[in-house]
Amino acid sequence: MMRSILPVALALPPLLVSGCIVIPVGDLLRGPALEEQVLAAGDGFFSKDKIAIVEIDGIITGGESMGILGAQENTVAETKARLDRVRYDPEVRGIVLRISSPGGEVTACDVIHHELVELKKSARIPVVAVIVDEGASGGYYVASAADLIVAQPTAVVGSIGVILQTFNLAGLLGKIGVETQPVKSAEKKDILSPFRARTEEETAILQGVVNDLYQRFVAVVAERPGGLPREEVLRLADGRIFSGVEAQKLRLVDRIGYVADAVQIVRERAGIDRAPEIIRYSRRGRSGANLYSLAGGAGGERPSRGAEIRLSLPGDLLPRARFLYLWQPFAP
């Protein structure tokens, strides 16, 4: 299988563009570059057939921020970096998309879904998603880009829907004698302000946006390979969650299995005869890695988890309101 090779220019750290030196400062600040880590050796000496495991772990975000329990990485940027490594490595014959996520920001989930769809078009390799413990809301949205979805029997699947979390602190501020006095260009410029109650008209406007994003989610699920008809998706898309076993019966996932089963499915779909090399991409190597140690632990990096409480305070008094494809039952 022949695929385009990464242009030599992209391999050079400094690029000369219009007389200016452009240095990829972002990756330098991030720390170690992505490295290929071998989880299982394959047959072959001069050439190898590889299957790459790409992880979607924790809350999906489109920007880096600091949470109470630690830093939240930019899931979109990290996933894109790993998919690019796959795209420019002709030895990679397929992807196992390992998902352990309750979802996250609407746009971040949609971008990752889009990147996976585009990768399948350009690289023409099989992509199989495996939901290990959570593939809810945006996690399931991302999984829907795969050719086939495997779920562990104890996984949480579903929660198809959209939520917009907001605050109304007007009563509290009134009790302590604080009053906001915004100067605005139009009546609805401060819609979603936590310092006043919303009007019925504003609620209707926001509900319209939520409805549009919800319909997109439904369409993505209905259009996935082997997916349900739209009417069936709508029947299940009321935010409820399912076990992996129940999700398989309802055809939200295709098979019950584990990471090793997903690897075998990719191998069969890619037509790999000899034992493939199983790899992942990491910014920090770890010892004793295998298919069941990818979620972090001794000697390895600790990815962000879905249960983390996040409070972004980069100059803002309160967390900003965001449209979310997120299953987060403990949220206010």
Fold and architecture overview:
The chain has helices spanning 25-30, 75-87, 106-123, 138-143, 170-175, 200-223, 230-236, 244-249, 259-270, and strands at 15-17, 20-22, 35-40, 50-57, 65-67, 70-72, 92-101, 103-105, 127-136, 148-151, 156-158, 163-164, 241-243, 255-256, 277-282, 323-326. It is an alpha/beta fold and 332 residues long. It has a domain at 31-160 and 238-316: 2-enoyl-CoA Hydratase, Chain A, domain 1 (Alpha-Beta Complex), CATH 3.90.226. α2 packs parallel to α3 (106-123).
Blueprint of the fold:
Layout: E1 15-17, E2 20-22, H1 25-30, E3 35-40, E4 50-57, E5 65-67, E6 70-72, H2 75-87, E7 92-101, E8 103-105, H3 106-123, E9 127-136, H4 138-143, E10 148-151, E11 156-158, E12 163-164, H5 170-175, H6 200-223, H7 230-236, E13 241-243, H8 244-249, E14 255-256, H9 259-270, E15 277-282, E16 323-326
Parallel strand pairs: 4-7, 4-15, 7-9, 9-10, 9-11, 10-14
Antiparallel strand pairs: 1-2, 3-15, 5-6, 8-16, 11-13, 12-16
